[in-house]
Amino acid sequence: MAHCTRVLHGQGGRTRLALVEIQKRCFSVSPLTAAAAQVAMSKFDKAPLPYQKLTQNIEIVKKRLGRDLTLSEKVLYSHLDDPKGQEIERGTSYLRLRPDRVAMQDATAQMAMLQFISSGLPRVAVPSTIHCDHLIEAQIGGDKDLARAKDINKEVYKFLETAGAKYGVGFWKPGSGIIHQIILENYAFPGLLMIGTDSHTPNGGGLGGLCIGVGGADAVDVMADIPWELKCPKVIGVKLTGKLKGWTSPKDVILKVAGILTVKGGTGAIVEYHGPGVDSISCTGMATICNMGAEIGATTSVFPYNARMEAYLKSTGRHDIASAANSYKNLLTPDPKAPYDQLIEIDLSTLEPHVNGPFTPDLANPISKLGEIAKKNDWPIDIKVGLIGSCTNSSYEDMGRCASIVKEALSHGVKSKIPFNVTPGSEQVRATIERDGIAQTLRDFGGTVLANACGPCIGQWDRKDVKKGDKNTIVTSYNRNFTGRNDANPATHCFVTSPELVTALSLA
Predict the structure, then answer these.
(1) From CA 230, how far away is CA 92, in angstroms rounded?
(2) In terms of residue numbers, what domain contains 403?
(3) What is the reported pTM?
(4) Are both 24 and 149 inside the same structural domain?
(5) 418 and 493 together in one domain
(6) Residue 329 located in a structural domain
(7) What does the alpha-carbon distance between residue 266 and residue 264 come to, in Å, rounded to a whole number?
(8) 310: enclosing H helix or E strand
């Protein structure tokens, strides 16, 4: 019984209520349940993992609905403000939800924080963070570009830092990394419901969370302890079989799905990946797939909890969260007969590498047909710039796979024939690739390591090698390739592919 009388350390009413609920059930609470209730959501937060409460809520909802549930439904419905009375009908009803946390990037956080300040509330009601990644322009290289951005945007950064300190919002300074990589490394956990003021917030689905991009007003509501309203999404199932092999990467899964569903096909739906093929994809690979679900209009995307996620949690110093998740696997995986509104099946063993574009991410081109299609459409054949990184593909794994290709090329005396820009996803990634010699390998190849930020992916790129209006081709491992997005040149033909193919094409 000793575990029932321990004090849950932390601040806030929700932590105390969690303790009271455990104490009320002292006669039946298992040691695992009590232990999970005392595990903090992150090393920066004292609020505990909500697994016990989520399990109670989903039991109520499942009894009401009388059917198996998808993983998406389990995470959403377990976060209902009123699980007993909430109307639940996919595609029709509006859900009132209680997200676990809020994440904001610096371009959208400014207005959100101003609105929160005007509320008069002393502190945010849920764990929240600000990430400075959108205001750093790529010009020369990492250190110089970062110093320039700090000088130009010093008033913005100072406001966000001081407002965050006053109202209890975590602040990740410029250079710390891209919001979604920081979230994956530090804050995401299986079963999380998070809203973020950026469209690629779904990146956290690679760690089993439902992470949804919203506007600043929604973020303010949640920080002010107001239930968040969301139209109950439909659920598109993507069953993965086989195993990735050869040059095929996780990026090719979402490039294939984009070709099937188009840029509007996921609207009003959550894309839920499942099946035996999931286990052949790393956690950061799953994050890549979920991240780019934004390009098909999906509310978010998610993978079920598995051993790959457990390994990632442990490798990022979150052994206690991995142990807690292992105790709640039923909550963090879909039921066997869960119904999907649409089902797509992909055999990873036969999936080809893809190069999507130009001008839209859903124009899917299998690599075997790319040359023929390019010639037919009179696309510029000579590639001018190769770029790897962005929130979609800037993990240590991505950098390492590219470096292995580069080492092979260098061993034959071959370097990149074009400018090759590299964006690490976070300071942790940058420091690790520097430590392991990966960064130097990429520099030896002819690469320029940019600041840990969004950079060219969102148009923060002072490009000098072509004039505006000049027809040219670039290849990236980014997510979007709409007209003029990267360099403000409407004549630039941008193609999206995996980091490995960007590296290989830079040699061609």
Answers:
(1) 10
(2) 367-505
(3) 0.92
(4) no
(5) yes
(6) no
(7) 6
(8) helix 307-315
260 belongs to a structural domain: no
pLDDT value, residue 36: 59
Residues 6+ apart with CB under 8 A from 164: 113, 130, 170, 171
Give the confidence band of 508 by pLDDT, cuts at 50, 70, 90. Answer: confident
Burial status of residue 324 (CB atoms within 10 A of its CB: 0-12, 13-18, 19 or more):
buried
CA 207 – CA 81 distance, rounded (Å): 24
Number of C-beta neighbours around residue 390 at 10 A? 30
Q: Copy the structure tokens of residue 76.
A: 């959403």
Give how many domains the chain has, as a whole number: 3
Above 80 in pLDDT, residue 454? yes
Residue 162: which residues within 8 A CB-CB, separation 6 or more?
Answer: none
- The answer to whether residue 335 sits within a structural domain is no
Residue 222 token pair: 């949640």
**38 pLDDT tier (thresholds 50, 70, 90):** confident
Say yes or no to pLDDT of 22 above 70: no
Q: In this structure, are 497 and 375 located in the same domain?
A: yes
Which pair of structure tokens corresponds to residue 337?
């007969």
Name the domain boundary from 175, 202, 223: 223
* CB of 417 closer than 8 Å to CB of 111: no
357 located within any domain:
no
Look at the block and give the residue holding tokens 């840029």: 263
- Domain of 126, CATH number, reads 3.30.499.10
Q: Which amino acid is at 1?
A: M
Using CA atoms, how far residue 188 sits from 181, 200, 250, 337, in Å, is: 10, 14, 20, 27
Q: Are 287 and 184 in contact (CB under 8 A)?
A: yes
Provide the pLDDT for residue 6: 32
Q: Are 325 and 332 spatial neighbours (Cβ–Cβ below 8 Å)?
A: yes
Q: Which of these three, 173, 200, 223, is where a domain ends?
A: 223
For residues 400-429, average pLDDT: 97
